C-alpha cells in the first residue's frame, strides 16, 4: 500500500496527515489527538466531498477516502453536542 495524504480542516486550520488506505478512522483520530490535544471521542470526522461522517471502525479505503481528500473535523462542545462543521472557504 502506498502512503497518501489527507487534509483535515477545521475553521481556517488545515492539518496534513500522512496515512495509509488501510488505516481506520480511529487511527486518524489518534494521530489528530497528538496534534490538537482533543480526546478521540471528542472528534468527529466528515468526508467533505460526500458529507458522510466517517465510521471509526472502517478503513479509509472502505469509506472512499482518497489521496488528498478533505476531511472536516468537528469537536464536541461542553453540552456534549458536536459543533457545526465549519471550513473556511478560500477566497477566489
Mean pLDDT: 93
Strand content: 25-35%
Distance between the termini: 35 Å
String of helices and strands: EEHEEE
Principal-axis shape? globular
Low-confidence stretches: none
What is the number of strand segments? 5
Q: What portion of residues is helical?
A: 10-25%
Structural class: alpha+beta
Strand order of the largest sheet: 2-1-5-3-4
Q: Largest sheet, described in full?
A: 5 strands, mixed
CATH homologous superfamily label:
Phosphatidylinositol 3-kinase Catalytic Subunit, Chain A, domain 1
Instruction: Name the CATH class.
Output: Alpha Beta
Q: What is the name of the CATH topology?
A: Ubiquitin-like (UB roll)
Domains, number: 1
Search tags:
92 residues, 1 helix, Ubiquitin-like (UB roll), globular, Ubiquitin-like_dom, Ubiquitin-like_domsf, alpha+beta, single chain
Summarize it.
The chain is of the alpha+beta class and 92 residues long.
Question: How would you characterize the overall build of this protein?
Answer:
- The chain is of the alpha+beta class.
- It has a single domain, classed as Ubiquitin-like (UB roll), CATH 3.10.20.90.
- 13% of the residues lie in helices and 30% in strands.
- It has 1 helix and 5 strands, in the order ββαβββ.
- The chain has a 5-stranded mixed sheet with strand order 2-1-5-3-4, covered by helices on one side.
- The longest helix has 12 residues, at 25-36.
- 18% of the residues are buried.
- This is Ubiquitin-like domain-containing protein.
